[in-house]
Design a protein that fits this description.
about 140 residues; single chain; N-utilizing Substance Protein B Homolog, Chain A
């Protein structure tokens, strides 16, 4: 994956986290990120799809993640919850991105932003989800 898409994911996780914590309108959050960040360093269109897509499909994403979790989605650490929702969105709606790339990118985000062993949890949950939503790809 390109560095610009990785950058889009990194900013999207931060924006989704902010949205989860504040309930602020995602359009306002988007505007804030674009005014504070160098848009030339990340894929703004992909950032937009992620930041708008997660809230738009929240119920479906949480429903898909539910059976893959060992607790309710609400009790998952907020940073890891944002990463899981982002990963689930990509697994379900961005089939052009290989599932291994989605999981790897999510794990890397969890290493940067999550709790000490959060990346392992993210890896396990998204791997279980990929087995369900990407059956033909995961074999």
């Amino acid at each position: 994956m390109s560095r610009k898409k990785s950058g889009a994911r990194q900013h999207a996780v931060q924006a989704i986290y902010q949205w989860q914590m504040t309930g602020q309108d995602v359009r306002e959050i988007r505007g804030q990120f674009l005014s504070e960040q160098d848009a030339g360093k990340f894929d703004v269109a992909y950032f937009d799809r992620l930041v708008q897509g997660v809230p738009s499909h929240l119920d479906e994403l949480d429903k898909g993640l539910g059976p893959c979790l060992d607790r309710s989605i609400e009790s998952v650490d907020p940073v890891e919850r944002a990463i899981l929702r982002l990963g689930a969105f990509e697994l379900i709606y961005h089939l052009e991105v290989p599932y291994k790339v989605v999981i790897n990118e999510a794990v890397e985000l969890a290493k940067v932003f999550g709790a000490e062993q959060g990346h392992r949890y993210v890896n396990g949950v998204l791997d279980r989800l990929a087995q369900t939503v990407r059956k033909t790809e995961t074999g």
